[in-house]
Amino acid sequence: MIAEATNQKTDHDLTLLYSNKTPEDAPFLSDFEDMEKRNRHFTFVPVMTRSDADEWSGERGHIDAELLKRYVSDINKPIYYLSGPGDMVEAMQKMLVDAGVNEDNIRSEEFAGY
């Protein structure tokens, strides 16, 4: 979706909060970084859950409401697309609803086998 929006030069604001254990575990990390450079409407926020101080200078820990609010000024405005392992998708849905996001604005797809 982000690649298509970048290729089409859409003016929709897009923010990707992208959680992985380490940069080495993050598929397409450099691709997303490149897309962010080419699309002024795309904000890429990689978040690493297990990186040490020497190898990662970006966001750390788990995606929570506080992190979301640092990058999304009005959390009730976007449509949220969640994708990943079932437990992660479920936790993100709960976090969004607990933060006050309307459930009608949340779309999700679970992938097994991680």
TrEMBL record:
Entry annotated with the keyword Repressor: no
Superkingdom of the source species: Bacteria
Oxidoreductase FAD/NAD(P)-binding domain ranges (all copies): 5-94
Pfam families from the UniProt entry: NAD_binding_1
Flavoprotein in keyword set: yes
A GO term, aspect molecular function: oxidoreductase activity
CDD domains referenced in this protein's UniProt entry, alphabetically: FNR_like
Classification via InterPro entries: FNR_nucleotide-bd, OxRdtase_FAD/NAD-bd
Alphabetical keyword list: FAD, Flavoprotein
Name of the molecule in the record: Ferredoxin--NAD(P)(+) reductase CarAd
UniProt gene name: carAd
